[in-house]
């Protein structure tokens, strides 16, 4: 009988994908016929269409169970109606040779003058190598991640121990110096300036230790905060921070002038956000002349909330540029405390998906601007992605 057009098409396709095509008329259980063209590897691995089941226990089991049920009912092993059924990749040894080949079988149903069971056997050596490489890569990445987390835990513990060992003695020295300053009598009044200089240096040392701890803690975190619960309102956190910094501004003769607007819930963590704003305000106060003003203002810019801190000081030196946000970098005109405050700001803001920049104002002074993603915008994008 002359083959129909679909059978000729199937022959071309089978040759193109290097597949062995076996068919049988339903009801003639166990009698498969190999269609042309026969792949070169078929005889080497499986012999003939009469002996392939004896040579391959896996294929024999697939035909009796998974494929057998599919051909009878058109359903897979979970009871779902499907048009074809895959065996998954399995391994075959090449008779007489010390090597392996990998294959995958696909059971299908053909309508051609009556129900016909179709079995495709395809080489899967390349797919197997790709899957093994993928599995190995996933394993390596998982192992590397576990090692990294272990190293981070060790560094976090070491950091906490160092900060504890450094901070406690300094706190004790500062406490005793403050007590001595209160108790010193008139006969020791000449020593009071020296005591107060020591207090100032001890306080400076305590602030330095605090800055180092914050910077390294932020560096170790190294991942963006996720939004959980109620995201902090940038303006509300800033209002509390401005109030806390007001006494330092008053002592330096610098007025803090906040300009609050609408509520701006952002992707951040309240305490760290407060430290970012405090660092920027402290930096602005430090570089402002007596009688100067430091302004802090907020606005919405697309999917971001923007905070701007401006002072009336000497501005940023021309050769500083973005180096101002690097660790231990300080200006020459009015150097800061440790050169870590702005570095902490950059690390923290970028960790939340934001950015920070600095530039000189046209009227004199410096402007520091940081942007944080609005919580509502991030939630909207995450919801859309689902």
Describe the model.
With 386 residues, this protein is of the alpha+beta class. It folds into three domains: 5-123, Beta-Lactamase (2-Layer Sandwich); 147-221; 234-385, Histidine kinase-like ATPase, C-terminal domain (Heat Shock Protein 90). Helix content is 48%, strand content 19%. The protein has helices spanning 5-16, 40-46, 52-55, 57-64, 66-73, 125-183, 192-221, 234-251, 270-287, 341-351, 375-385; strands at residues 20-25, 33-34, 84-93, 100-111, 115-123, 255-259, 293-301, 304-310, 355-360, 366-373. A hairpin with a 5-residue loop joins strand 9 (355-360) and strand 10. It starts with a helix and ends with a helix.
Strand element count: 10
Task: Give the topology string: H per helix, E per strand.
Answer: HEEHHHHEEEHHHEHEEHEEH
Note the total helix count. Answer: 11
CATH topology of the largest domain: Heat Shock Protein 90
The CATH class label of the largest domain is Alpha Beta
Stretches with pLDDT under 50, minimum 5 residues: 1-6, 223-227
Residue share in β-strands: 15-25%
Rg (C-alpha, Å): 37 Å
As for the number of domains, it is 3
């Amino acid at each position: 009988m002359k083959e129909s057009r679909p059978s000729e098409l199937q022959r071309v396709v089978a040759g193109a994908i290097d597949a062995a095509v076996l068919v049988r008329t339903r009801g003639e259980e166990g009698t498969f016929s190999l269609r042309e063209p026969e792949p070169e590897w078929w005889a080497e691995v499986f012999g003939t269409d009469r002996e392939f089941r004896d040579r391959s226990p896996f294929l024999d089991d697939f035909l009796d169970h998974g494929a057998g049920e599919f051909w009878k009912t058109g359903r897979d092993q979970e009871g779902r109606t499907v048009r074809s059924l895959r065996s998954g990749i399995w391994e075959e040894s090449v008779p007489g040779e010390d090597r392996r080949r990998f294959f995958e079988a696909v059971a299908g149903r053909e309508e051609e003058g009556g129900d016909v069971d179709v079995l495709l056997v395809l080489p899967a050596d390349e797919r197997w190598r790709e899957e093994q490489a993928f599995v190995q890569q996933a394993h390596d990445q998982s192992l590397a991640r576990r090692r990294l987390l272990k190293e981070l835990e060790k560094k976090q513990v070491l950091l906490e121990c160092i900060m504890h060992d450094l901070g406690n003695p300094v706190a004790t020295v500062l406490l005793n110096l403050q007590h001595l300053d209160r108790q010193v009598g008139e006969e020791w009044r000449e020593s009071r300036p020296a005591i107060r200089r020591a207090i100032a240096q001890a306080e400076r040392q305590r602030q330095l230790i605090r800055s180092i701890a914050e910077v390294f803690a932020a560096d170790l975190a190294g991942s963006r905060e996720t939004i959980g619960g109620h995201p902090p309102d940038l303006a509300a956190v800033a209002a509390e921070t401005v109030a806390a910094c007001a006494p330092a501004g008053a002592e330096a003769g610098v007025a803090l002038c906040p300009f609050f607007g609408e509520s701006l819930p952002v992707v951040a963590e309240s305490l760290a956000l407060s430290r970012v704003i405090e660092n920027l305000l402290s930096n602005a106060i430090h570089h402002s002349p007596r009688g100067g003003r430091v302004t802090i203002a907020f606005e919405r810019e697309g999917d971001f909330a923007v905070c701007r801190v401006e002072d009336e000081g000497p501005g940023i030196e021309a050769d500083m540029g973005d180096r101002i946000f690097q660790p231990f970098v300080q200006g020459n005109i009015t150097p800061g405390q440790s050169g870590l405050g702005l570095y902490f700001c950059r690390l923290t803001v970028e960790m939340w998906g934001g950015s920070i920049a600095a530039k000189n104002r046209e009227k004199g002074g410096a402007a520091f601007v940081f942007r944080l993603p609005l919580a509502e915008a991030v939630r909207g994008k995450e919801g859309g992605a689902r």
